Amino acid sequence: MAHYAFLDENNIVMDVIVGIDETELIDGLDPETWYGNFRGQTCKRTSYNGNIRKNYAGIGFTYDAIRDAFIPPKPFNSWLLNESTCLWESPKPYPTDGFSYSWNESTLAWEIMDFSEAIGAIEN
């Protein structure tokens, strides 16, 4: 079984389905073409393990034809696209001290999420 993403006119993923294997033909057509014709939308194969098109397509992802990749929505304006993975990365690396952090776009910094956890670590 293979997975297929259906795109709108702006190459935004609207739906993802499980379909026949990509090597099988339907009425002499490859599955991308057949499914696309059947639904009247552009159809692109996607893969859970990222073997094709960089990332598994999700609803709201964008298909970039130049990169031949599915790119998730940009989480914050300051984040940059990693060209090799086609994933968004923060301008500062995620801290590796074992605490949980969330990104604060207004300060462009990672902020600790559980303050009691941090206070306990400092007190010890």
| Percent of sequence in beta strands | 25-35%
Query: How many strands, what sense, and barrel or not for the largest sheet?
Result: 3 strands, antiparallel
Uncertain spans, ≥5 residues at pLDDT below 50?
none
For the secondary structure, the number of strands is 9
Give the strand order, joined by hyphens, for the main sheet: 2-1-3
Structural class: alpha+beta
Shape: elongated
Task: Write structural notes for this entry.
The chain has a domain at 2-73. It contains 2 helices and 9 strands, in the order ββαβββββββα. The chain has helices spanning 31-39, 115-123; strands at residues 2-7, 13-19, 42-46, 62-64, 69-71, 80-82, 87-89, 101-104, 109-112. The longest helix is centred in the N-terminal third of the chain and has 9 residues, at 31-39.
Topology:
Blueprint: E1 2-7, E2 13-19, H1 31-39, E3 42-46, E4 62-64, E5 69-71, E6 80-82, E7 87-89, E8 101-104, E9 109-112, H2 115-123
Antiparallel strand pairs: 1-2, 1-3, 4-5, 6-7, 8-9
